[in-house]
Amino acid sequence: MTIKERDFFFRLAQYFVLGLAAFITLLPIIVVFLGAFKTNQEFATTGPFELPHSFLYLENFKVAIQQGNMLLGFWNTLVLLVFSSIGTVLTGTMTAYVLHRFDFTLKNFIRLLFLWITLIPNVTAQVATFQIVQRLGLYNTRLAGIILSMGTDIIGVYIYLQFLDSISRSLDESALIDGASFWTIYRKIILPLLKPATVTVLIIKCIGLYNDFYMPFLYMPKQSLRVISTVLFTFKGPYGARWEVICAGVMLALLPTFIVFVTMQKRIYNGLVQGAVKE
Amino acid sequence: MTYTVQKKVIITLFLCVPLLLLLVFGYLPILNMIGYSFTRWDGLGKKEWVGLANYLELFTRVENFRVFFVSIYYFVGAFIQLALALFFATLLNFPIKGQNLFKGILFFPNLINGVAIGFIFLYFFRDTGTLNTFLRFLGFKGQILWLTDPRVINYSLAATSIWRYMGFNMVMFLGAFQSISQEIYEAAALDGAERWNLFRYIMFPIIKPVVKLNLILSIKGALSVFEIPYIMTGGGNGSSTFVIRTIDTAFKFNKIGLASAMAVVLTIIILLITAIQEKMFKEERYL
Fold it and tell me: A116 FRET partner, CA 20 to 30 A, in A22, A40, B144, B242?
């Protein structure tokens, strides 16, 4: 075989293997997509690979949204995302600014406190966190989800601290010479310059929160507070025998993720990998 | 305000809220957990001091340990996951059209909501579901009960976990590969035989530490498996993991003391593994 031939076969194999892998990855989702457009009757009589009679049959989506409370789930998730994001950006930038730019007595100890907490397995700690949330009267309130996602998930602090390395201290210093207060420096210099890091933090935060199941399941079980994860989880009961409705619910829950991924692919890769390296 | 006063004010104001949250919702639960682990408590009534009784019960009852064996499935799964990730990252790293599309498809499961993944694979593994239909199409006669037969259930769940997380490792490996100059790949592409050497002598050494780190992380991951089996089977049919058992002990059976002891034990194991990891990777940590 000539070099050219070998190269050709390598490329062929490359496409074949990757194509197969992509197909296997997508298959479980594709069959759910097909199922979402089938009538109850159709679902019972056709196999999972068969195409639905019509892709315009949207009854299952309607049932999922109206009876399944998915609209409420999306709304509650959105509220949680907005407040947690604001809280995380504020506490994260403030903590990182102080820890990065000032020297004070307990500084190193406080840095370590923020580091050590990441070593503890999160789910098992809920055994004792639950009691605190309950005693503070936060059980079954939106505040539980918002505060817990701000308080113990400190990925933001890491990313901001790292990013602050690249923001020259001479900027702070020249502002100081001009008579600016530390608050002004934070507000007018640091916060705007941290914007790229904020994008990363928000991506990690929002994907994490949108997909989080256990926190809302444990702390906000009330029907009116259910987020998309917990709303979808309740489909297990009443629609246990109605897979076509479950399929529609799954596709609806997937839709925002898909749109965000397609529009922000590069940032998501960078953000998530950056977040993981810190673990 | 002088800068000395200002400095004190800003440190106090900026740190008080984050630090309060960290202490109340991060550290206080851990201290409480250790305290609870020496008591018998249903979460409502009076706590009764029982000394080491919870730990004794934990270490003497076989069922508490059997769940640790379930982790082995996920651990082996993690090995397969890393091998696949390495394989696909390598393939993707050689020039190919549609690289982004392939990468995106293989990565996408990582972003999907855990409950949605649960349903997708409940449907996939259902008795008359996707997998069995496909196997019948291939001419396979019997029907495997992927999620009810205790002999296969953990394979099914571990496979789901591979499907979910493989793309993430792949993107990490790919990122490490991309730190190698692109010219090397292009030169190697001219001669097929060079590719293996390139992988063996240039690409693999570069990501060896990344692979090693991922291996240790996957031990921790395998010990703390929770979401997928909890959502899909609730831990039934022999698929319960240590974390599911802990959570059920606390919130289903209201044995906060025993559950706390379990949580303490898992935390200690995880910390030990972390210590080993730190020893192996003495690179600088950021914080």
Answer: B242
